[in-house]
Design a protein that fits this description.
single chain; mainly alpha; rod-shaped
C-alpha cells in the first residue's frame, strides 16, 4: 500500500468516525445548489441577532434572557465548527482520491500537475466552495457569541448603574422623610411650648 493510499484510507476512516457523531446542522446540498437563498437566510439571522442583542429598559427581563441567548448561539457556533471539521475531512479525502486517481493514470506526472488536476476538478471545487461557506457560517456564529459576551458586560454595567440610582432614590426619600420628621417635631415642640406659656 502506497503512502497516498494510506492517507486516503486514514482520511476516509476519520470521515466515517465524524459521521458517526451525528449529522451536520447545515444542509450541504443547500449550500451548493441554492446560492440565491443564502443572503436571505443571513439577513434573517442578522435581523434576529440584532433584535436579540438590543437591551430594553426592563433590566430584570433582560438579565433573565441573557443566559438563554448566550447558550443558544454558543451551541450553534459549536455545531457550525463541527460541520466545518466534517467538510475539511471531505475536502481532504477528495484531494487524496483525485490525486491518487490522476497519479495512477499518469505515472510520469509531476507533483504540480497532480495538484493542478485536483484543484480544477469540479467535485473538489464544489467541496471547497462548501467548506468556505461553512467557515463563513462558523465565523458569523463566533462573532455572534462574542457580541452576546459584550451584551453581558453591558448588562452588568447597566445593573450596577440601576442599583446606584435606586440606592440614591432611596437615600433621597429617606432624607426627605427625616427632614419632615425633624420639621414636624420642631413645630410640634414649638406649639407645645407656646401652649404651656399661655397657661
Amino acid at each position: 500500500m502506497t503512502t497516498k493510499a494510506k492517507q486516503v484510507s486514514a482520511a476516509k476512516d476519520a470521515l466515517d468516525r465524524q459521521r458517526g457523531r451525528g449529522k451536520p446542522t447545515c444542509n450541504y446540498e443547500a449550500i451548493n445548489h441554492e446560492p440565491k437563498r443564502k443572503p436571505d437566510l443571513l439577513r434573517l439571522l442578522q435581523d434576529q441577532v440584532m433584535d436579540e442583542l438590543s437591551i430594553t429598559s426592563d433590566l430584570p427581563t433582560e438579565f433573565a434572557k441573557q443566559a438563554a441567548y448566550f447558550a443558544h448561539y454558543a451551541f450553534l457556533h459549536a455545531r457550525a465548527m463541527d460541520f466545518v471539521r466534517e467538510l475539511e475531512e471531505q475536502v481532504e479525502v477528495s484531494f487524496y482520491e483525485l490525486y491518487d486517481e490522476y497519479r495512477g493514470g499518469h505515472s510520469d506526472a509531476k507533483e504540480n500537475e497532480c495538484k493542478s488536476f485536483v484543484r480544477t476538478h469540479a467535485k473538489h471545487q464544489r467541496l471547497t466552495q462548501g467548506l468556505r461557506a461553512g467557515q463563513f457560517q462558523s465565523d458569523v456564529m463566533k462573532a455572534t457569541v462574542r457580541a452576546f459576551e459584550m451584551r453581558k458586560d453591558m448588562l452588568v454595567q447597566l445593573g450596577a448603574q440601576y442599583r446606584a440610582e435606586m440606592d440614591g432614590t432611596d437615600l433621597k426619600t429617606s432624607v426627605r422623610k427625616a427632614t419632615k420628621i425633624v420639621k414636624d417635631s420642631y413645630h410640634g415642640k414649638k406649639e407645645r411650648h407656646a401652649t404651656q406659656e399661655e397657661t
